[in-house]
Amino acid sequence: MVRVAITGINGRMGTMVSEMVLAQPDMELVAGLDLKGGKQVGPIKVSDVKDIDSVLKAAKPDVLIDFTAAGAVVGNVKAAAANGVNLVVGTTGFDEGRKAEMAEAIKAGKVAAIISPNFSIGVQVFLKLLAQAARDLEGCDIEIIEAHHNKKKDAPSGTALKAAEVISSALSEKPRLVFGREGVAPRGREIGIHAIRGGDIVGDHTVLFACEGERIEIKHQAHSRSAFAAGAVKAARWIVGQKPGLYSMGDMVKP
Ligand SMILES: NC(=O)C1=CN([C@@H]2O[C@H](COP(=O)(O)OP(=O)(O)OC[C@H]3O[C@@H](n4cnc5c(N)ncnc54)[C@H](OP(=O)(O)O)[C@@H]3O)[C@@H](O)[C@H]2O)C=CC1
Ligand SMILES: O=C(O)C1=N[C@H](C(=O)O)C[C@H](O)C1
């Protein structure tokens, strides 16, 4: 049995991930944490995240799945790593400094961790297509447009930033990133990134390769958060069998 704990269990992703974990015959939900404790989820009562250290010590999970917020994830990762708990981190919006802090804690705790801004399998294919298009269409103008629901806190999305990173790595000359445009804004060697927020859009990412006389658009649309939740549950099962270290979705789904 894989013993699973979830931080952010009251949230949109945490709720769906906990339902999926409860439905897995080889998984056991042993702890759930959020800013507000008390709710019953399957066999467990949600704990207040301020008690994370004692909760992890008592529940002894094999893996912690985190879908919280940019300002919260580092503390949760540090607590898990210090208690020898492997990690699946889906939270987005943290900067390079916070990323480095998490990497340090994961190394010091000698745990295995997978951190990904998008756990859908389709997005892994999308990223591969972007790398190929970037290589084959070098010189074309590149714009990334993402759209999400009106409750999303971070912008642009972690997936849009990952797409920019993948495209940049495939190009021989690295472009700068331009976040939106206004006023006099002549186009240079750049990737434009644009965030749309509205209604209940689950998550759309479109990359435009605009050339002379033609253009290509590569698009991924999530119809349901189940695409992300299923990938996170798969990652939880996978990460407990890995050697200590930091992994990406690319490591998990590579052929
Ligand atoms: N990698 C992926 O595939 C995906 C990533 N995401 C990312 O996951 C994150 C969560 O998204 P979503 O579920 O929609 O957001 P929600 O706001 O619905 O859920 C986050 C939950 O975490 C709680 N929380 C805040 N701080 C802490 C803390 N310190 N410890 C424990 N819980 C805390 C929030 O409480 P409160 O509401 O009271 O603040 C809330 O219940 C975002 O960063 C989002 O971008 C989302 C979808 C897919
Ligand atoms: O907050 C969301 O909802 C999502 N966030 C992730 C991101 O920032 O890339 C992934 C997905 O698009 C949904």
TrEMBL record:
Chloroplast keyword on record: no
Entry-linked InterPro entries: DapB_C, DapB_N, DapB_N_CS, DHDPR_bac, NAD(P)-bd_dom_sf
Residues that hold (S)-2,3,4,5-tetrahydrodipicolinate according to the record: 149, 158-159
Recorded catalytic activity of this chain's protein: (S)-2,3,4,5-tetrahydrodipicolinate + NADP(+) + H2O = (2S,4S)-4-hydroxy-2,3,4,5-tetrahydrodipicolinate + NADPH + H(+); (S)-2,3,4,5-tetrahydrodipicolinate + NAD(+) + H2O = (2S,4S)-4-hydroxy-2,3,4,5-tetrahydrodipicolinate + NADH + H(+)
An MF annotation (GO) of this entry: NADP binding
Signal peptide (UniProt feature, chain positions): none
Compartmental location: Cytoplasm
Family per record: Belongs to the DapB family.
Protein name: 4-hydroxy-tetrahydrodipicolinate reductase
Species of origin: Methanocella conradii (strain DSM 24694 / JCM 17849 / CGMCC 1.5162 / HZ254)
Gene that produces this protein: dapB
